[in-house]
Specification:
The chain has a single domain, classed as 2-Layer Sandwich (Alpha-Beta Plaits). By secondary structure, the chain is an alpha+beta fold. The protein has 3 helices and 4 strands, in the order βαββααβ.
């Protein structure tokens, strides 16, 4: 089974952002605000902030989008740009961002 589905056939896109904190308390505050503000963005179906239980100081933002294009456009939004700027000096490395096809991640209606 191929997982290469054309963008117009994808019902849900999932974006993950993995961030390793130099200053966990400050980073959590930035990411919590980002999650709340981003939930209202065009195409956002949900966004959650999680803390790793296996890597101290690692946080993961998991968001579901109506399409891959909506997720990509969000990265240039004021909310994402503000979050990126606020993370300056709070991370031990650049964040890892991935965009996934939502093969079984459907909204519950």
């Amino acid at each position: 089974m191929s997982t290469n589905v054309p963008d117009d056939d994808v019902e849900t896109a999932i974006m993950t952002m993995e961030l390793d904190a130099a200053d966990p308390a400050s980073l959590v505050a930035v990411l919590a605000k980002y999650a709340v503000v981003s939930r209202g963005q065009n195409g956002c179906r949900n966004i959650d902030l999680s803390a790793s239980t296996t890597h101290a100081g690692r946080f993961v933002v998991i968001s579901k989008w109506a399409s891959p294009d909506a997720a990509r456009q969000h990265l240039d939004s004021p909310a994402a740009v503000e979050m990126a700027r606020a993370c300056e000096g709070l991370l031990v490395r650049a964040p890892r961002i991935d965009l996934l096809e939502g093969l079984s991640a459907h909204d519950l209606a």
